[in-house]
Structures are given as C-alpha cells and as structure tokens.
Amino acid sequence: VSTPPDSDLLARIAAGDRDAFGLFFDRYAPVLFAFCIRILKDGKDAEDVLQEAFVQVWRDARLFDAARASVKTWLFTIVRSRALYRWRSRRSLDQRFSPASDESLDRERAAAGGQEEAVRRDYVGRWLRRLPKDERAVLFLAFYDSYTQEEIAARLNQPLGTVKSRTRSGLAKLKVIAIAEGGAGRG
Amino acid sequence: VDDEPLDPRASHIAAELTAWCDALETELDATDEGGATSVELTPPPELKERVLWSIRGGMDPITALRPAFPEAPDRGLTTMFWALGVAASFMLAAAFGALWYATRADLGATRANVAQLDGMLYEKGRELKEKERELAWLKDPRVQVALLKGLEANPNAKARLLWHPGSKQGILWVSGLPPLPLEKSYELWAFVGDQPVPAGTFDANADGATVIPISKQENLGETPVKFAVSVEPKGGVPAPTGAIVLAGKRF
C-alpha cells in the first residue's frame, strides 16, 4: 500500500479533506507526543498541546510554504512553539499562586515586566556570545528570530547539514553554560 | 558574569533556555532525514477523537464518530425476487455513493473556501479596529512629540517619536540609520531624569526608513523627558553600553 507524501496530505487537508487529516495525525502524533512529553514532562499538558497544534494544522494548512521549510519542520515548529508557551505559562502560574503571592506583589511584578524582559534578553545574549562565532550565528537566528534550519541556511548561505551540525554543537555548549550560570538548571 | 553574585532571575532564565535547547535538539533528531530514529509514544486513542471533534466545529464526538450508515441485517437470499431486490439495492447504493462522494468533495472545498473567507474577514476586521485605535491614539491631545537627531557617526540620521504618557506606548519613525551586523540591534532609551530605561530594540531596514511601534512600557513610572538610541548586542541590554547614535528631547 503506497503512502501519500506529506506535501500531498497537506494539500488535501488544506482543501478540507478529513481523511487526509486523519492519516496525517496517525503519521505524526506518536513522535510529536513523545516530543511534547520530553519538554513538558506531563501527559495531560502534552495531550492539550498536541490537540491545539493539530487544530492549528487543520486551520493553517493552506498557509504552509514549501519554500520555507519541509512539512515536518513546519509541524515541529508549531508544536515546539506551543509546548514552550505552555511550559512558560505553567511556571508563571506556579509562581503566581505561590504562598508568598499577594496583590501588591503582582502589581510590582507587572511593573517590572519590561525590565525583566530586557534582563532575560541580556542574560541569553551574554551566554550566546560565549559560543564560538559560527555556532553563535546560527543560534542567534534560531533564538531571536525563530528561523527554521532551512531559513538559517539560506540567510547565512551555508549548507543545511553544516547549519544543523553547528546548531547541535552550539546547543550542547549553551546548555552547559546555562546550567552553570543558572544554578539549579531546569525546574 | 563569573565574578558576579548569582542573580535569582538567572536560574529561571537558564531553565527556560535549557528547555528551549532540549526542544530544538529533539526537533533536530526527529526532522533529520536518515538520521537516528526519533522516539515515538502513542497518544491515548481519545486524543484523536478530541482533535477530530474540534475540527468538525463542535459536533458531539459520539455523533461525529458514528458510522454514516448502520450495518444492514444479515438476511439470506432464497428467491430470485430477493436476488433482484438486492441487485437493485446495490445499484442504487452505488449511484448514491457516487453522488455522495462528489457532494462531499464539493462540500469540503466549499467549507475550505468559507473558512478562508472567514479568516480574511476576521483579519480585515481586526486590522480596521487596529487602525481605529491608532487614529484615536494619534488624535489624543496628550500625545507628545520628540525629535531625535543623529550624532557624529550618522549626522544625517533622524527620528520622530510620538509618545503617550498615559498608555506608555509610542511610535518611532527612523531614517538614515544603516543596517547593523547580525549580532547587534538598535535599542531605544527613555530617560526618566538622568536614568535611562530600556524601551525596546529594533533593526533598521536596508533602505534606512523604519517605523517601529513601541509596546507598553510598564517599567516607566514617570514621563520620560529625553530619548536616545544606541547600538547594543542583539536582544538589548538593561543599561546602555554602546555608542549613542540618536538623541533628543520631547517638546
């Protein structure tokens, strides 16, 4: 039995074909579910993120641009963005409902929001600048501009394989720096 | 940062960055054609039902998943009459099936068109509301104007800033500033007294003319009196470190 390529399935989904959507779900849900679990460490959150992401696929399939990224990369970008947003929201909620929280503290936090964003960018920028030049260049585009690997390769005029290997080695070093500088690491 | 005491915010920022790194690494593993096989984990079966229910626009999931045609009772064919009846039924079913298939294809395309038009309508409505808000904002008598002039490095550069002290938002028109290297960006500073407060970063276009909406700056307690633009590391810094390229006061 031949399996339709991703691009065909996505074109059919864009035309409102639910059967194609079902096939697409079956094809990608297992790997994306594992991906979400790895980021969120929570099955319920992972299910919610996956549901939101696939509904977005159904809605935005017509916006997919094969010139910018492969179907798989496009799909992972959607899921990663939603999973990290959920991850941040959950941490924010944990802090908001901590025993020390009260209204005045919330007001102070809101007032400090702009400054905190600048501090966040400052820290990440400082840690990124400690990477070798080639790795730094690809991670700058991935972190600040949310570029896909294909877009980074085009922007820097480098082969995709080179960009991927520099991203991998840069990420490994960046994690070591972040954990060393941030103390406890992941929470 | 090696000699500095550990900032409690650093732990939170590092955790967020580590999560981002993990996510991107896993994504690279999974999207690498011909690379290591990615980890798979089957989601609960009801998740697919929930997703399908969502895209059906809220139809009851049990109804949505029910077969369109119930199975016919199994009856034996003992006479020619029944055989002819069944043959006729098959022909009718085939005709209806073909009709149903064609109609469903049309319906799918029509639904996609309607969804697309709905999306466009929603976008246009949102743009209109946005423009109305901008117009009301510009007409507000409380909006203040600041003109920023280029300093030594870019004497021809200039910028005009509209600043609303109530909403703490602004719009900046910049011209004559050159695009910066990848790792740099321009950062706007609002001075409350002599204290510079970060008010957002931006990149200049290749043609040198840029319009930058400045998002709400909750951190500005008082109305700023002076504004400046400096060249800073990409993403911005909490206090200016680079060369000031534009500066000016509000009227």
Can you put this structure into words, describing what you see?
Chain A has 187 residues and is an all-alpha fold. Chain A is 77% helix and 0% strand. Chain A contains nine helices and no strands. Chain A has helices at 6-14, 18-40, 43-60, 71-96, 103-111, 113-128, 133-144, 149-156, 160-182. The model of chain A is unreliable at 96-111 (pLDDT under 50). Chain B has 251 residues and is of the alpha+beta class. Chain B is 40% helix and 23% strand. Chain B is built from four helices and eight strands; from the N terminus they run H-H-H-H-E-E-E-E-E-E-E-E. In chain B, strand 2 and strand 3 form a beta hairpin. The two termini of chain B are 40 Å apart. Chains A and B meet through helix 2, helix 3, helix 4, helix 6 and helix 7 of A and helix 1, helix 2, helix 4 and strand 5 of B.
In short:
The complex is a heterodimer of chains A (187) and B (251). Chain A is mostly helical and 187 residues long. Chain A has helices at residues 6-14, 18-40, 43-60, 71-96, 103-111, 113-128, 133-144, 149-156, 160-182.
